[in-house]
Amino acid sequence: MGKAAKRDRLYTGMLLGVTVLCALTLLYAAGSSAVQTFAQEAAPAQTALVPGPLKGLTVAVDAGHGGYDGGAVGRVSGVPEKGLNLAVAQRVEKLLTLQGADVVMTRTGDYALCDEHPPIRRKLQDMQRRAAIIRINDADVVISIHMNEYAGRGESGPQVFYREDCPAGRLLAGAIQNAMIEGLSPRQKRTALGGDYYILTLGVPSVLVECGFLSNREEEAKLLQEDYREQVARSVVQGLLDWRALPQEKPQPLPAVDRSDEPTAE
Ligand SMILES: [Zn+2]
Fold this sequence. Notes:
By secondary structure, this protein is an alpha/beta fold.
């Protein structure tokens, strides 16, 4: 091997060395940028791995009454239930969202869902439009929020209603009733009851929550307080979480009642 050949070899070797070094640098750069990309994507990916317990559940929250229809009235304060219902419903919405649920509100302000003119059969039109919102959004569960009243002032305590003879509604109502007794410690501990309400006949597990009696002086005072309404909302959501976590298979709800042909005006 002559001097020139040796030099050539050395040169080739150096070239190879530089090439390998470059390749390694490139690999390292690629590697670190890959790591960076992963790190940037890791946060949302990890969040997705820990879904809220209500992830995948669409809950319709219905604030009872509104607009011309005030509903029950506070015996002492004269405050109608419509605004209190909306306040509780909006807290329920917030809490459900934090638990990962998709929430559909049937109303978000002080209005009824019926036409102003003509003012005939407004209640039915209002209910039909609430039902349409719930149906269009494919809700899995319906929670309607109300306040109770009774001629006798002694009656008090939250009470949850479900569609008569509907085992799916009864199971959900029972879970929410228990959670409300636990969370609110009412003087009168009521049991969930079957009832005949339009909003409960849409073919999904549905409850109508009477948060308390506005005809009872003590309970009216509580329901007028924001802190108490917050506790009410938390109890309702806790009930839904308890229901969701039940190990048993959930019974099928009764099929929807078709009320589309009911006249909305006379
Ligand atoms: Zn009501």
